[in-house]
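cache lookup: miss for this entity combination. No prior model stored, computing from scratch. Input as submitted by user K.M.:
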Amino acid sequence: MTETINSLGEQGLLKIFRQYCSEVVGDDAAAMGATLPDRQMVVTTDMLVDEVHFSDRTTSAEDVGWRAAAVNLSDLAAMGAQPWGLVMSVGLPPDTQVAWIEGVYRGFSECLQTYGTELVGGDTVRSPVRTLSVTAFGQVPKNQIIQRHTARVGDAIVMTGLHGLSKAGLELLFKEELKEKLLAPLKIGNRILAGNDLVQAICRYHQRPTPRFDAIAIVHKILKQQNHLGDFPISGMDSSDGLADAIAQICRASEVGAKIYWRSLPICRAVRTLAGDRALDWVLYGGEDFELVLCMPFELAEQFVNQLSGAVIIGEIVEGDRIDGLEMRSAFQHFNV
Amino acid sequence: MTETINSLGEQGLLKIFRQYCSEVVGDDAAAMGATLPDRQMVVTTDMLVDEVHFSDRTTSAEDVGWRAAAVNLSDLAAMGAQPWGLVMSVGLPPDTQVAWIEGVYRGFSECLQTYGTELVGGDTVRSPVRTLSVTAFGQVPKNQIIQRHTARVGDAIVMTGLHGLSKAGLELLFKEELKEKLLAPLKIGNRILAGNDLVQAICRYHQRPTPRFDAIAIVHKILKQQNHLGDFPISGMDSSDGLADAIAQICRASEVGAKIYWRSLPICRAVRTLAGDRALDWVLYGGEDFELVLCMPFELAEQFVNQLSGAVIIGEIVEGDRIDGLEMRSAFQHFNV
């Protein structure tokens, strides 16, 4: 018989939780130390609900846990921060399998280890629906917070990696028949794969999103080399709600327009193969790629794309409130038919 | 017709949220500044689920919001911290009334204002069950964190206020007939009340728990006057799970025993009147009073109870692993029959 958390009891559940928690849990709150010199704290929080944000049909317990960590870590990266620690509260129906929640903690913990941070606390409660609520803390050098409202006319628009692959992975998970399109070898990332390996590699983009702390490390490195003075020159956000949405949000918050270099916008072969005519649609609106969309002077942008493999300048910030001289929505639709 | 969040839409909901949020919400994370000099951060988180932790039958939306804030703030106070900020994620079914969630934010905000802190971020998602997840972070002077495992033999055990009133409030909310016991005037807090006023005052103990930051301020004041050197002399936790539980937890974590001064243990008239023979039961196990149970040298404890109205020395820490020489559970049961 499969063990449920009801038979495990509250103490048993707490015992599992503690295995994945770095601190001596037992006090009312977790002690975190002070912020590092010349750093400040940023905080972000996300709630994930069963059948709204994840599903047993498409996502293993480990992937749910990874995802719960990654979406929050991506928000920290989007602000230019390094992770400091996370807390996770979990609401569970009594018939939840112990194996499921263990899998969630394991995947969560694996993501945290990958990015050098820790689970420092949490709460476990009864709920009729499986619910995860994560809060992540990060630290960012003072005056180097990446925000949405500071893009400037003349800035290059940079994306840190390909878009549309998370959508491609999701489609593959739902539509068995799409797999037939992937029999021939294709380059994905740095590898050439075909068949089942290729399917799995694409699904992984959806299942294991990657917060781009590597991009932030390069930002800091470049700024240090430049001995940069004056206003912090970088703005942006992550593309969790889609590439088009990120560009539009930055433009709206900064009261500027944008010109997109449509011919430079990379669309990877896997997305073309799976999406056909709708490839650009997936790239612009697919969402959940968790790349960063950053605006910065061209001189910095060129150094940045030289140092970060896969990063591309995809446009520039212009005066006005339009994208390619069109209403934001129609600008994207115009190139999307 | 009553407006639901479904008809309001995501943007409308976000607009309500922003009214109660101090920061410019719009970036991926909230910027908080650095910890103050010689302070460190503590973090706590709690999830509250409809029909598990609150109910329309006993709790107004405002009180749900207040409670969600207060339980987290009490955890900060229990660590000796002052609040720095909070985030709240909310999961809502589409048919949730807009008035309900507005009430929650209003009550939450009222509690935060009372204790001089702010809502700095959050998330709003769809969920089949109303769920609130709050994370609170606070700052505490370095080496002055109040923990459970540092109680020492010879310490006095102090409680910051009366126990059993939250339970009394809950009983009154469920059992209409109990109100008849409250026709005669009774002293409650610093007032003498009777009838409906008395009922309401008692219910309020359950509906509006009070984090004891005032007690923490007195702790810091006394320590400052003492010019205290060496190990931090104060241990403890809050009594959210009951007075008996707090004493037992501290003893277990510190590997000590306790002697309780049963004759000094105050039981207020309202609890006696409502609970009858079970008054001590309510005091020990009622729970949710959110007082602090602190252990400290008698010399400090005497100053502390002199300065904090309602605080009482209720026992002392002794060698061993028993309370009053008995197994922890039976120690409390022994005096409870």
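stored under new cache key. Chain A touches chain B through 60 residues (CB under 8 Å).
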